């Protein structure tokens, strides 16, 4: 596909003629065909998305759960979500919400990473004075 036909791949971009916004089907087509301009225009396209910062950060947390991301990746997006007004409970809701899609093992693997980012030690339950999880063994 010639990249000269497409000026911006995502977000509220304009069509190749510079007129009007590109609708979601055109944006999906560009993603599906891995348009050459996709990588070049991605940073500016993210600022044009119709999602607020909180929703976008929470969606990214869900994506990180799905891919089994490392703690550092969660740190960045959980921090962005909290900074945008999400609560720790919102972050946990997202993890629980994607279990049926990504599988319980992915959510279980993500939970301690997210807990650390949120400043919680899953292996020391201060409320009850008892150890939980692996610390019990």
Describe the structure.
- Residues 50-111 form the Carboxymuconolactone decarboxylase-like domain.
- It comes from Microbacterium allomyrinae.
- Helices cover 54% and strands 0% of the residues.
- With 137 residues, it is mainly alpha-helical.
- It has two domains: 3-46, no CATH class; 53-117, no CATH class.
- The radius of gyration is 19 Å and the shape is elongated.
- The model is unreliable at 1-15 and 133-137 (pLDDT under 50).
What is the gist of this entry?
With 137 residues, the chain is an all-alpha fold. The protein is built from 7 helices and no strands.
Q: Please give the radius of gyration in angstroms.
A: 19 Å
Please give the oligomerization state of what you see: single chain
Shape: elongated
**Mean pLDDT, rounded to whole units?**
77
Number of helices: 7
Q: Strand pairing plus helix content: what structural class?
A: mainly alpha
Cα(first) to Cα(last) distance is: 58 Å
Strand residues, percent: under 5%
Helix content: 40-55%
Largest sheet: none
Q: Residue ranges: pLDDT <50 for 5 or more in a row?
A: 1-15, 133-137
Provide the succession of SSEs: HHHHHHH
Strand tally is: 0
How many domains make up the 3D coordinates? 2
Write the layout of secondary structure elements.
Layout: H1 24-32, H2 38-46, H3 53-67, H4 71-83, H5 88-97, H6 99-102, H7 104-117
